[in-house]
Fold this protein.
Amino acid sequence: MLYICQQERWNNVIEVKDMNSNQIDFSTFKFYNSKMFQLISQGIADLHCRSDRYLAEEV
């Protein structure tokens, strides 16, 4: 269940990012290859508490 919630969250971040660039493939690539995604996935950063908009702007 947690995995599904995380995937939904990442999709929301990518959609917000895509609204700015209109290139969903590029937005997806950039998010999943970002340092921020690595930190969140490893549980190192508390960035999962931030809003989707904040995360999209930081990527």
Q: What stands out?
A: The chain has four helices and no strands. The helical segments are 2-21, 24-32, 35-41, 52-58. Residues 2-21 form the longest helix (20 residues). The chain has a mean pLDDT of 76.
